[in-house]
């Protein structure tokens, strides 16, 4: 079980969290101007690095806040979570 | 006349030397959302007898109990029907504040006595040692896989806030986990 550092509540069991996928995926500025392929890339295409990966997490069973954390996908080491708006 | 039944109305309280478990039904619970830096937050704190706790995982118990739920969210808990919502509404005035009565959302189980920490530790991953989770600390977490709010009180006492629909399950689990701390025959299998 991973111990995930919620920036508000501190380290908690993985079971208290909901995964939110890759962080910093910006919503297209002008969605209507996107081609089908560009839209599909925005919706479905994500990085899949071996190593550091910035992800979104929600502390569903705790404070219910979203935050970003960097997880090493090879070792599962997690760097301290960062508060997001 | 309709009788009001609490979620654990059928639960027989447990009372042993080292451990007591009982429901505290029908407490008034108000969910409060407000910018902690706002004037309204200060005014509400004043009306409740203590500033809203801004350190994560802490609660104040000046008049009503005020539990930290998030950076802009608190759970205010008071006795049955004491006009808590009105008090907060009056203090908030016309400011941008969310005040919601959630009294029916959860019921409260009081777990008291020197064995309370040992009992809760059977199903809770948090460190409940008094050095870490002493009086004035609270947390939203999982107890026996059910979502709960835990609040530590003086004298090894805890308040366990549990969703009404999970209350029966959690009470059964507490009884089962408590068997080793209770005199023979206290817990009967059903
Ligand atoms: Zn949290």
UniProtKB/TrEMBL annotation, chain A:
Segments forming a coiled coil: none
Gene3D superfamilies: Folate-binding superfamily (3.30.2270.10)
Pfam families found in the cross-reference section: SoxD
Domain of life from the UniProt record: Bacteria
Molecular function GO terms recorded: sarcosine oxidase activity
GO BP terms in the entry: tetrahydrofolate metabolic process
InterPro entries attached to this UniProt entry: SoxD, SoxD_sf
Protein name (Swiss-Prot/TrEMBL): Sarcosine oxidase subunit delta
Underlying gene: soxD
From TrEMBL, chain B:
InterPro entries cross-referenced by the UniProt entry: SoxG, TrmE/GcvT-like
A Pfam short name: SoxG
Protein name: Sarcosine oxidase subunit gamma
Name of the gene encoding the protein in the UniProt record: soxG
């Amino acid at each position: 079980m991973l111990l995930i550092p919620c920036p508000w509540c501190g380290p908690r069991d993985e079971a208290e969290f909901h995964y939110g996928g890759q962080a910093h995926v910006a919503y297209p500025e002008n969605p209507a101007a996107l081609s089908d392929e560009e839209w599909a890339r925005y919706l479905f295409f994500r990085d899949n690095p071996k190593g550091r990966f910035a992800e979104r997490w929600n502390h569903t069973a705790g404070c219910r806040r979203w935050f970003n954390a960097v997880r090493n996908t090879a070792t599962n080491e997690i760097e301290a979570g960062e508060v997001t708006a | 006349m309709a009788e009001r039944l609490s979620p654990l109305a059928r639960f027989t309280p447990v009372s042993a030397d080292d451990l007591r478990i009982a429901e505290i039904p029908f407490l008034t619970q108000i969910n409060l959302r407000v910018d902690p830096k706002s004037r309204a937050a200060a005014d509400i704190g004043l009306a409740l007898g203590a500033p809203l706790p801004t350190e994560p995982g802490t609660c104040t118990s000046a008049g009503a109990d005020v539990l930290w739920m998030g950076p802009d969210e608190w759970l205010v808990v008071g006795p049955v029907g004491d006009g808590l919502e009105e008090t907060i509404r009056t203090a908030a005035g016309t400011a941008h504040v969310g005040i919601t009565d959630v009294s029916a959302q959860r019921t409260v189980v009081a777990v008291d006595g020197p064995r309370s920490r040992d009992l809760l530790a059977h199903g809770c991953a948090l460190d409940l040692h008094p050095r870490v989770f002493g009086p004035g600390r609270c947390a939203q977490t999982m107890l026996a896989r059910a979502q709960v709010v835990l609040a530590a009180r003086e004298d090894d006492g805890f308040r366990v806030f549990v969703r009404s629909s999970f209350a029966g399950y959690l009470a059964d689990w507490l009884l089962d986990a408590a068997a080793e701390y209770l005199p023979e025959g206290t817990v009967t299998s059903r």
